[in-house]
Amino acid sequence: MAELTLRQLKKDVAALAKDVARGAEAIHGVTRELDEDAKDTARVAEMIAGMGVDTTSVAEARELAKLTSAAGNELLAYANLGDSTARAAQAAHNQARASHDGINEAYSRAPVDISNMKREWLQQE
């Protein structure tokens, strides 16, 4: 098992927070595109209805617009969960930085010279 260092932990948590935020934003982008597609399909359905296209085709176009809109709503709910996950990942990053930087600060201010201390004393069991 690879040894996890403070530096690696902070780097990994920061990368995770950024990746999750990027993923959530990408989902929002797809949601916006899907919403536009639903609106466009609804407009086309109304246009072809005005042109006297057969009612079956108009009904299918309207149904497609409804399904696309419903898919967009579900994707929006998923995107909102992604936002929550992104906030949680950022909070984990902030917590790791705050707590571990506090350890570093305490170590730096220690009045006792612990430079010769054996690392085994600092490990948790």
| Total number of distinct structural domains | 1
Unreliable sequence segments: none
How far apart lie the N and C ends?
15 Å
Indicate the structural class: mainly alpha
Radius of gyration, CA atoms, in whole angstroms:
27 Å
Major sheet: none
Q: Mean pLDDT, nearest integer?
A: 83
Choose one word for the global shape. Answer: rod-shaped
Number of strand elements: 0
Q: Percent of residues in helical segments?
A: over 70%
SSE string, helix = H, strand = E?
Answer: HH
Percentage of residues in strands: under 5%
Q: Please tally the helical runs, counting DSSP H or I stretches of 4 or more residues.
A: 2
SSE layout and pairings?
Blueprint: H1 6-50, H2 55-109
What is the structure about, briefly put?
With 125 residues, the protein is an all-alpha fold. It has 2 helices and no strands. The protein has one domain.
